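Re: How this chain folds, sequence and tokenised backbone to follow

Filed under: protein folding, tokenised backbone structure, sequence and structure records.

Contents: The amino acid chain and a row of whole-number tokens, matched residue for residue.

Body of memo: The sequence and its backbone structure tokens, given next.
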Amino acid sequence: MTNKEQKTNLIPNLEQESPESDIYSSMDDTQIVEALKQQLEQDEQTTSHSSGGRRRGKRHAPVLETEEGKTLKECILKLKKYSKSFNYEERAVFKPQTDFRDKNITFDALCTTVSSSTDKLEEYTAIGFPYKRAVKLKVDTTKLDSISVEVSDGKNMYGICIDIDEYSNVATVIPITNNFEGYVVASSSSGINIGDKLDFDSYGRVIKASSYSQASINAMALSSIHTLQLTDDENKKGQEDYKLHLIKISLYGNKAVS
């Protein structure tokens, strides 16, 4: 008889023996202890199989089912309602890069340095690439509900193009009736100081306001002009075609013309 068979036989058969008989009378102390251990292990296995499902369900209960979790979820939904930039999965036109390069002045993708939940952002099909420039509306009478935006002509201005989706060619525009503050394209590298009243030329770029301005717009310069070099070629750095002039401005108190 093997050890395994011997251990199995140590467990008494309670169904065959009567309660009055002494089932452990023929065993010594070591055999009795071994039999009790085996019986205890079998009882534990039977109990674990019968109640294991309920314990697993309790261990994997979702956290948000608690009162604290429900309150947190409601707060997040309320924040999304009052914030236009709460979606972190939103795809940006420009993404920050972490590499060993010159840490120059950077400008955020949506162009606004101060924003509010009451800002009205509109999307239109872009004609050309009026990024960070003044734009006007253009209606195509040959198509139904076909409204697009293009660079302002200096007389008509609807808003500022603050972003363009390069794949769908859809421009995000903030109307001038909003209080806007951010960086836009300037026409030259000088001639504007902090506090100067501003206007826009026929290319949608910022210029200093004068008595010859064709439209009256409440706009003010909040910084000097920053010039970005668009090329590393020393022979082309002096050319205006390879420079980008940006300036921080503020639009305020403008009303729609009826």
Summary: The chain has three helices and twelve strands.
